[in-house]
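Methods — Computational structure assignment.
A single polypeptide chain was analysed. Its primary sequence is given first, followed by the predicted tertiary structure written as structure tokens.
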Amino acid sequence: MIRRLYDWTLSLAAGPRAPAALGSVSFVESSVFPIPPDILLIPMVIARKEKAWWYALLCTLTSVAGGVLGYLIGMFLFEQVAQPILSFYGKMDKFDEFSAVFNHWGWWFVFIAGLTPFPYKVITIASGVAGLSLPIFIVASIVSRGLRFFVVAGLLYFFGPPIKEFIEKRLGLMFTLFVVLLVGGFILLRYI
């Protein structure tokens, strides 16, 4: 099923409505859809390099808007909608312990999930359930999602198709390492 969704999503990148598809996929990925918008963003930027920054902005804005939908799902529809989604992604059993520390570290959770391969939708829903400040949620989402999509678009803009394989296979790892080093640096500074 995931492979068919992936193939269908990728086929949208070649169509005349690719920007609308990119915005739609980016929006729903932030709250329920399992396929990240990068699979549309990458071929679209390769095909229309001059639109790279527009595509990154579109991804950022629609992803944050979809994140707000996930936040609202968590806030208002936890039992009816959020529990099944979290269960589908195998996160329900760890959710109770996770929510205990969520409000204290919420900005970092949103930032890390928005940047790394961790499912952002889990954090958007958890933010609503935990009652994380909506302005903090939105700012952290804009910073992390914007950084992620603009880095992808920038790498493709400057290096073109040869960087595609690196982005598809290793960029998530690189973002994860960046976040670990960033957080580790803050922790180190705090205790030095």
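Note: The chain has one domain: 21-191.
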